[in-house]
Amino acid sequence: MLRSFRFNSTFSSAKVLAALSNPNLVKTEGHINGEWVSTHDKFAVKNPGVDGDFVAQVSSLSLEDAERAIGIAKREFNKFKKTTPRYRSLLLSNLNKLMLDNQQDLAKLIVLENGKPYADALGEVKYAASFFQWFAEEAPRVYGDIISSANPANKILTLKQPVGVCGILTPWNFPSAMITRKLGAAIAAGCTTVIKPASETPLSALALAHLAQEAGFPDGVVNVIPSNHTAEMGQLITTHPLISKVSFTGSTRVGSLLMGQLAPTLKKLSMELGGNAPFIVFEDADIDKAVDGAIVSKFRSSGQTCVCANRLYVHESIYPEFTTKLTQRLVDTVRLGHGLDEAVTHGPLIHENSMKKVTSHIEDAVSKGAQVLMGGGPRPDLGANYHELTILGNVTSDMEIVHEETFGPVAPIIKFSTEEEVVAAANDTEFGLAGYFFSKDISRVFRVAQELNTGMIGVNTGAISEAALPFGGVKLSGFGREGSKYGIEDYMITKSVVLGEVN
């Protein structure tokens, strides 16, 4: 059994919040037009790592509040779109610096509301801030073109202009980075925003709103509407005539619903949805590096990332060595417990529903012949949301875990014989967000990279995310790209201007 650590009661959420270096980061009200909006309707933010520990009571804004925020964002857009790219670059640079200046406090907020270990949370804050740095550099580099016309008396000009008010809908698993990846691009383009964070993790979003004020953002450019009326807020944002673009990260089921709501108004839309990432270890791979990559890819944040490896395919000739080394590495290094215990490497799942899905997938696999090589069950001695990191061997394609995203700390390992067989199996899914494979054969690297039907691929690495990466998927994993030089495109329109009689 993996060693684990109990949460020290002296680290209660209230005490952690009271001890922050910058207590102004703790906001429990909505943020509209530069003002903090309190409501009688509240919802509780729970600490998933400690049973019964509440982090905060947060104002649940109404649809009327959201309507007002959208109207203000539209009014301010008519001013903000006329600002210079250099001005917007300065705003983003200021916000990047403020996030890094407050990184430890921001990381603690993430630990309390999300549950991930402090080191992971600190990494998320730095990753989140990097999008502000990236888009601060991109903002001045958005160019149009002059195109030769078939008519020699004409010239065709293309202008890049901001799309308008952007509705941003974000999940709980990266409560800071999922906002900054969208917000950075929107601001760089000259858009204003209305952000609806996940009700499980609103504190990180509200802290960003505070820092945006400190960074000098004009009132009404960044509006945050925390609410536990999630479905109603989503419908308002997708159908409101003053919103021109929606960006959503979440499940494919919800994404499909939002897309249907949005269709009558034909808004610009980008979606990063569910995944079922294959992780392939070929017979010529460096097994130790593949083990390291599997741990990073599969078990980061206890398997609660959209690009987590969901299916591990290992060539039959190296299957025994790989599974033995992976199991031993986890036994030697993993510490399960609360994220503010320094020795802890992996924390709890977010809530009861996540626990149920993990348990269901394990039970189904075992009932159909899978072997539990490590872990396998909940850890109620640590708390209601803790589950052991688990490795399943002898997994076959008739098991639910092969076809459904687990979003939890379970690694199902499947044997394969040939490259053709494993590529076909990897592509046998409705999803196509990320994929990974390990091989020393350069010809195979290019061949398999082209054949895998995913939006992103890690070759000989389990860590792919950074601001420079065009992040996004294909098939039911969504469309559009975030981050990178392409990320700003979804927040802009291309306007064509034909100048006549220029000769």
Secondary structure topology:
Elements: E1 4-5, H1 13-18, E2 30-32, E3 35-37, E4 42-46, E5 54-59, H2 63-80, H3 85-101, H4 103-114, H5 118-138, E6 145-148, E7 155-162, E8 165-169, H6 177-189, E9 192-196, H7 203-214, E10 222-224, H8 230-239, E11 243-249, H9 252-262, E12 268-272, E13 277-281, H10 287-299, E14 309-315, H11 319-333, E15 336-337, H12 352-367, E16 371-374, E17 390-393, H13 400-403, E18 410-416, H14 419-426, E19 431-432, E20 434-438, H15 442-451, E21 456-459, E22 474-475, E23 478-479, E24 492-499
GO biological process, one term: gamma-aminobutyric acid catabolic process
Active site: 272
Pfam families: Aldedh
Poorly predicted parts: none
**pLDDT average, as an integer?**
96
Q: Summarize the biggest pleated sheet.
A: 7 strands, mixed
User: What percent strand?
Assistant: 15-25%
Strand order of the largest sheet: 16-17-18-14-13-20-21
Number of strands: 24
* Helical content class: 25-40%
Class computed from helices, strands and strand pairing? alpha/beta
The shape is globular
Total DSSP helices: 15
| Cα distance spanning the termini | 80 Å
Compute the CA-based radius of gyration.
23 Å
